[in-house]
Every structure is written in C-alpha cells, then in structure tokens.
C-alpha cells in the first residue's frame, strides 16, 4: 500500500519575545525547509494562539514551545484540547505530559539509572535546611522550578550561606514546586553533554560549556557549544535511556555529565529541545530521514 501524504502539517512553536532564542539558528525555518523538500504542506503556528484552527492539520510537530513552563496551566489545557482532536502528534502528548515536570528524573533514578535527581520542595512549604542536608549530599545546591526551562528562577546556593537565600526561596515556593539538586562541579569544569536522537537512532552530540564563573550552560548566559563524538560507553548509556523512557519518539535529547567515567542524566528533553541542527553536516539529513519515515511512511521505525 502506498503511504498517504499528510494533508497539512503544523510546526508548533511559540510567540517569541527573545527570552529563549537569542542568537540561535531558527530551527523552525530549518524544519520548514525540510518539509518543503519532502513536498509536505505545512505552516508554523503558535501553540497559544486562540485563532489557530487545529482541525485543519493532519499532523502536529511539536518543535519550539519554549514558553510552555511560563504558561503551564494553559499549556496543560492545550494538551487536553489536542487529545480530543485525535490528531497524530510528535512527540506524543502523553510523552510531553510525562516530560513536562522534572519529577520524571526521580522515576528514572528509581529504576536504577545514574541520575542527578534531587529533592522536591512542594509549593507553599517552608524549605527545611536539615532535610536538604540529609537528602542532598553536597555543600552546594542548585534549586530550580519543578516545571521550568532556560535556567529560569534557578539558584546556586552554598549551604554555608543559607540564611542569605532562605527567604528568597521561601518566596519562590509561594508560586510553585521546586527541585533541589546537588551542584555538579563537572558541569563547570568540563560541561554538559547533549546527545541527539531521531526515531530512536543516535544522530549527533555536543558539549555545552558554561562561561567562566557560571554554572548555566545556556548560550544566552555566555556558554559555548562544540560538536563532539561521544565515547562508546556514553552513547550506550544514552541509547539505553532512550530505549527505556522515550520509545517511539521522533526526537529526543539526552543531557548529562560524566562523573568518574559514568554518564549521569541531568535532563531527558522530549518536548521542545534545541536540536543543534546547524552545527554538524549530519544533523539535518538525519532529521530529514526521520521525518520522511514518520510522515511519508518510508523506512522501518524502531519498536
């Protein structure tokens, strides 16, 4: 049977105010160019735009919903609305829901994988220094919203200076849940690795290094990015994570650090990861092949 051409595909993005895409290559444009080359009708739409007629699309490609955590209740409502339409979505809506809260890190850790997980502080609670010391075996911690991205409201705190931060953290907890994690010195000293997968197959990898005297690897905080070839052990660890927790995904990015030779997961990005498509000559062809398999039915998909 000849695969049926998608009628009209939505590249789902966000309304940019420059907060999360400064000095980035426009990957929505790259995706649009790829779909044009494949002869697939499409348009870029904003997930939060109330005027979008979603029923007109045969497939939704979630690409750059980079503000979902700023409008999380509205985003959850949008997901529920999309579920009622029964339109194919990549990555799937259930995958996106699971991945939208960093609580998933604790689930992955419980299944025996090396993870920089942490301790959840519930909204409207008062942070307990003794509990943090007991659960987080580090003199320095990183605190971030449980639903977040782009290092928003992320604090690095030396526990010896707790009194200088406790009130600020308590104020932040009035708004939402937070995650406390140990500060990982390897991020500052070496950097954070990102391995990209399309249709479950490894595509390319980068090393993100923070600016001097910083711990945030995002480029808009001065971080640098270089293409790398991951060691076989690292690739094997990341492939196992993808196979276990992200089966049948169009895209996935595994972010982590190497500690004493062992890869430790920091984020499993399955919603809207930046894919570093412009950094290596393999990235766009690999992405195009994955899209061809998904949208046109050519090639075998992984189980």
Count of alpha/pi helices: 9
Biggest sheet details: 5 strands, antiparallel
From the N-terminal CA to the C-terminal CA, the straight-line distance is 21 Å
Which percent range describes the beta-strand content? 15-25%
User: How much helicity do the residues have?
Assistant: 25-40%
Superfamily (CATH H level) name of the largest domain: ATP-grasp fold, B domain
Helix-strand sequence = EHEEHEHHEHEEHEHEEEHEEH
Using the CA coordinates, give the radius of gyration: 20 Å
Q: Which word captures the global form? A: globular
Which fold name is given in CATH as the topology of the largest domain? Answer: D-amino Acid Aminotransferase, Chain A, domain 1
Poorly predicted segments: none
Number of strands: 13
CATH class label of the largest domain:
Alpha Beta
Number of domains: 3
| Derived structural class | alpha+beta
The CATH architecture designation of the largest domain is 2-Layer Sandwich
What topology, given as strand order, has the largest sheet? 11-10-9-12-13
What is the average per-residue confidence, as pLDDT, rounded to a whole number?
Answer: 90
